[in-house]
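Title: Request for sanity check on Transglutaminase family protein prediction

Description:
We are preparing a figure and want to confirm that the structure record we downloaded matches what your pipeline produces today. Could someone re-run it with the sequence below and paste the raw structure tokens into this thread? We only need the token string, no images.
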Amino acid sequence: MNYRVTHTTEFVYEAKVGLCYNEARLLPRELPYQKLLSSGLHIDPPPNDYYERFDYFGNRTVYFSTQQPHERLEVTATSEVEVSPSTLLEQNSALSWEAARDQLRQGHSAQILEACQFILDSPSVGVDEQLAEYARPSFAPGRGLVEGVHDLMQRIFREFKYDPEFSTLATPLKEVLEHRSGVCQDFAHLAIGCLRSQGLAARYVSGYIETQPPPGKERLVGADASHAWFSVFVPDLGWLDFDPTNNQLPGEQHITLAWGRDFSDVTPLKGVAYGGGKHELKVAVDVLRRNGNGR
């Protein structure tokens, strides 16, 4: 599938900002199953400094500063990507979750050591007994790792209500677990915490998903949104993605932007502004499927 993704973030300030520094993770990754055809950022007003690098996790990261007075900042990321089904979806693993846990504890390969950092607590996901208790029904003794994670994904989908009014970026996982409500970010964090509570490696993935309008309704430009899911490390396969919000294994409709330990590692746009007072934030995302002729 070919997609054109447009992600616009606009800050409108009540007074002029004299100087701002920003960090953006808005450009998709290049992956075996995801080919990046084009990508770029348009920033208004134009930045005085701008440079791009790969961060610790290999995400494309742009740093820029605006050193002229402004009352509005608009950052638009436009990318064209080609997404194919991951070959991992076609493979099966009979590895039990205990065997996977033990390999992470005892293995010394570069792949295992890299995955081990995703077992530890991170800023937004701290393992506790509540998460371990919620995870246990999915990880009975001897159960296959992939089967157990799939069961966990299905339970989160069935037992939690998608409610964009319930949580914010600061809502603790224990409240999400208590009220059985949240959004895709919360469900990804919840699954990651459950997996880490069992000694398994799990990471947070940010990106986009193609959405379709209800039958008989027109597709609204800019009405899409950023999305989040999680990956679990399967020692004999690699990293396998799961989307608990939609109860599915991400495929051609999921576009991967960045990954890290949790949301704090992949924040789309953050920075510091000097002056400006209060501000209004507007975000518009458009995920448009295109044919082979670029239309």
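Thanks, this matches our download. The helical segments are 97-106, 110-116, 129-135, 145-159, 173-179, 184-197.
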